[in-house]
Inverse folding.
C-alpha cells in the first residue's frame, strides 16, 4: 500500500487543483482511477532467454566485461609474458620448463621434520636450498656403537637398523620407501694381545647394500631438485610486477582464465560499451526489431485488461523483486518491460522502455511508462487507445543467452495502472 500511496501523492502533486482566474472555465473536469494487479503464481524461476539474434553478442559481451572489469584488474599485464602471439603466466612451466616442479617428496602432515615454513630463499644464490625435504630421506648410519671405517662402519652390535629409515614418501612424488636389507654385515674378529693372539670376541662391519644406497641417493637427488625448482619459482615471482611481486599483484586462477581466453588481450572498456549498446539497441527496437521475440512473459496469468475510454491517458508502473539463483559473478543484466496489446488484432500498441539491473545480487526494479492519447506510430501521429476497444497489459523479462545456464527467482510482480481522462 505504501507504493500506491506514493504514486497517489505524486499524482496529487503534479495534478493539484487549478483555480480559474476568470468566471469562465476554460478546461473540462478530469477523473482518475487506479488499479493494481499482483502476481499470484510467485515466486517463479526464469532462465536464460532463447534469442538467436543476440546469442553471439550476449556471450561476447559477457566475456568482454569479465576480461576488462573482473580479470584484468586481478591479473595485470605484468603477470603475463607473450611469445609468438601466445600469452603465458610468468614463472610457470608454460614460460620455461625449469619452473615445472615435481611434487614434494614428503608432506609436512606425514613428516614434520621436513617443515620449512621459516625458511626464505636466498635469491642472490640460485644454488642455495634449505635442505628441509632431504630430512625425510633415510639415514645411512647404523643405530649403535659404531666407528667409521673405509666407507663402512665397525659396530659392537649385530642386526642394527639405520638411525632413521625415512618418512613415508608423498605418493604423488613416485619415491618409494626404502626396504630391507639395509646392510651387508661381516663379522670382524677381536684379538687379545697375547702371542699368538687369540680371538676373544667379534665386532661387525656394516656396508650399505647396493639397493639401500641407491634408494638413499634417489631420495636426496629428488628432494634437492624439488627445492631448487621451488626456490627458482619463488625468486622469479619476487621480481614480477616490480616491487609488488607475483603473489601480491597476480591472482593465479584469474591469470589462467585470461590465458585461456586470448580475446581478452584486445578487449577494452570501449569495446564492452559498444557491445552493450548493440544489445540494448536491438532490445529497444520494438515490434519491428530483430529482438522483439526475445522478451518472454513473466506469467501468462499476470495481466490487466481494460476497455479504453475517450480522451484517456494511462500510466503503467511495474515493480519486480528478483533474486539471482545461479548467476555467480556474472556481469549479465536482467531486463524487463511492459507491453499493451489490442485484444482484437493481438498487436502491441505500446511498449515501454527497457529497464535493467545487474544479476550480481538481489534487486528491485520500479519503472513506469505513459500511454499517451496520441503517439507517433510508423511516422504518423495516431490515437493509441481507441475508445471502446479492449486492451491487455502484460509484463515481460529477458536474460541474455550467455550459455552459462543463468537463472533468477522472481519473488514479486505488481502492475499499478493509473487511468486519467480529460
Amino acid at each position: 500500500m505504501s507504493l500506491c500511496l506514493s504514486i497517489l501523492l505524486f499524482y496529487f502533486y503534479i495534478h493539484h487543483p487549478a483555480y480559474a482566474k476568470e468566471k469562465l472555465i476554460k478546461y473540462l473536469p478530469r477523473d482518475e482511477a487506479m488499479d493494481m494487479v499482483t502476481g499470484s503464481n510467485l515466486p517463479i524461476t526464469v532462465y536464460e532467454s532463447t534469442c538467436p539474434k543476440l546469442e553471439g553478442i550476449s556471450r561476447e559481451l559477457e566475456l568482454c566485461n569479465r576480461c576488462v572489469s573482473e580479470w584484468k584488474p586481478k591479473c595485470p599485464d605484468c603477470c603475463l609474458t607473450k611469445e609468438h602471439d601466445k600469452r603465458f603466466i610468468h614463472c610457470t612451466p608454460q614460460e620455461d620448463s625449469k619452473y615445472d616442479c615435481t611434487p614434494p617428496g614428503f608432506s609436512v602432515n606425514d613428516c614434520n621434520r621436513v617443515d620449512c615454513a621459516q625458511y626464505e630463499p636466498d635469491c642472490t644464490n640460485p644454488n642455495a636450498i634449505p635442505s628441509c625435504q632431504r630430512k625425510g630421506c633415510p639415514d645411512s648410519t647404523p643405530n649403535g656403537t659404531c666407528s667409521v671405517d673405509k666407507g663402512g662402519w665397525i659396530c659392537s652390535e649385530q642386526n642394527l637398523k639405520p638411525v632413521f629409515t625415512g618418512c613415508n614418501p608423498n605418493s604423488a612424488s613416485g619415491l618409494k620407501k626404502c626396504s630391507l636389507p639395509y646392510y651387508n654385515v661381516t663379522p670382524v674378529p677381536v684379538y687379545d694381545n697375547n702371542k699368538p693372539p687369540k680371538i676373544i670376541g667379534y665386532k661387525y662391519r656394516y656396508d650399505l647394500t647396493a639397493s639401500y644406497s641407491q634408494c638413499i641417493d634417489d631420495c636426496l637427488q629428488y628432494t634437492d631438485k624439488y627445492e631448487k625448482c621451488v626456490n627458482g619459482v619463488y625468486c622469479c615471482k619476487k621480481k614480477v610486477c616490480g616491487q609488488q611481486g607475483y603473489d601480491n599483484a597476480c591472482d593465479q586462477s584469474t591469470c589462467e582464465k585470461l590465458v585461456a581466453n586470448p580475446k581478452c588481450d584486445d578487449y577494452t572498456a570501449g569495446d564492452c560499451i559498444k557491445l552493450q549498446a548493440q544489445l540494448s539497441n536491438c532490445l529497444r527496437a520494438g515490434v519491428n526489431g530483430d529482438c522483439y521475440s526475445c522478451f518472454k512473459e513473466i506469467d501468462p496469468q499476470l495481466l490487466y485488461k481494460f476497455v479504453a475510454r475517450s480522451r484517456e491517458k494511462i500510466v503503467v508502473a511495474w515493480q519486480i523483486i528478483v533474486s539471482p539463483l545461479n548467476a555467480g559473478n556474472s556481469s549479465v543484466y536482467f531486463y524487463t518491460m511492459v507491453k499493451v496489446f489490442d485484444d482484437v488484432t493481438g498487436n502491441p500498441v505500446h511498449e515501454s522502455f527497457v529497464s535493467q539491473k545487474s544479476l550480481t545480487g538481489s534487486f528491485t526494479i520500479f519503472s513506469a511508462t505513459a500511454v499517451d492519447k496520441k503517439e507517433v506510430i510508423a511516422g504518423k501521429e495516431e490515437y493509441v487507445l481507441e475508445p471502446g476497444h479492449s486492451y491487455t497489459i502484460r509484463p515481460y523479462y529477458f536474460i541474455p543467452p550467455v550459455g552459462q545456464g543463468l537463472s533468477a527467482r522472481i519473488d514479486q510482480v505488481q502492475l499499478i495502472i493509473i487511468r486519467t481522462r480529460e
About this structure: The first strand starts at residue 31 and ends at 38. The radius of gyration is 40 Å. The helical segments are 2-14, 52-74, 210-238, 246-249, 252-260, 269-283.
